[in-house]
Amino acid sequence: MDNNNDKCNDKNDNFEIIYDTFQMKKSQDGRLQLPNKNLTNLKSDTLYHLGMSTDTHNFEQMFGDIKFVCMGGTKSRMFEFAKLAAHELNITEPQIVDLIGSPNRFSMYKVGPIISVSHGMGIPSLSILIHEILKLLHHAKCTNVTLFRIGTSGGIDVPAGTVVITEKAVDELLRPFYEQRIFGKIVRRLVAFNQNLIKELKRIAQSQNNQGFQTITGTTMCANDFYESQLRIDGAICNHTMDDKFERLNYLKKAGVVNIEMESLVFGSMCHYVNVDAAIICVTLVKRTDGDQVRVDKQDYHEMQQRPQRLVMDFIKQRLAINHNNSNHHSNDNK
Description:
- By secondary structure, the chain is an alpha/beta fold.
- The chain is built from eight helices and 13 strands.
- The longest helix has 36 residues, at 298-333.
- The model has no long low-confidence stretch (mean pLDDT 93).
- Phosphate binds at residues 105, 149-152.
- InterPro entries: Nucleoside_phosphorylase_d (IPR000845), Nucleoside_phosphorylase_sf (IPR035994), Uridine_phosphorylase_euk (IPR010059).
């Protein structure tokens, strides 16, 4: 590698770093509150990438019953999850309709108390989506909502097809925070997940009696791209050797990293910031110590990506059953 430092150095490379440790307090009624006072000054709020506005849509009427938001990378995956949700909850819809209008960046479906929405690939795309989803939930006055990211990833030293529940998310330098450049400053925000929710998901996974694959918990590394940041040596540009790759993969393994993806930092950071329960469940498509390229046939890929979906669906059914039982209990108490 030609290290021409003069061309890459910046004399102004001395920026203020802000460690933003804020977390919104939960409201007593469970409503999602947002830490942005500027929203109260808006006459109307346009969620541009969802094709919706408080002027043209009644968010409370449309989405006030939402308890779960499930997001994943592709439109087709989230359409399949919407169909699975309708089947599992015995919801007979004449047609599952994409609710997003122009500019058609994402797809979003509503099935009973569930939103199933695509977030695209990587931190920038998911960041846009989750900002507007959180505002949607806020305008709809939703209460006690749980968010999930269900997707795919690369496994460090676990077989392809393994389901990973993220306990902790770190960047490529193994730092547990999400870093942004805001108003000329570097802002670092904590990434954290509700460990009780993770334990509940793990318990449900153990009860599923899955054949042929494991569900594990561990640390997820969030990368900024698919190739170099994920230690691949098969991209268009690469300045590292096979030995370099295995040395770093082994280092990550010893640090507790079990899988790599591209969205966990912003998802975990924003959900923690607004204090909403959230979890990430991803299936691994490749064992990175065996190779860089994903070679999964269409049938196996379809089955693998259903594994996190089934876990989330079992969680939702149990939560809805608990809520139903609690409602019946309160009704009986009032008689």
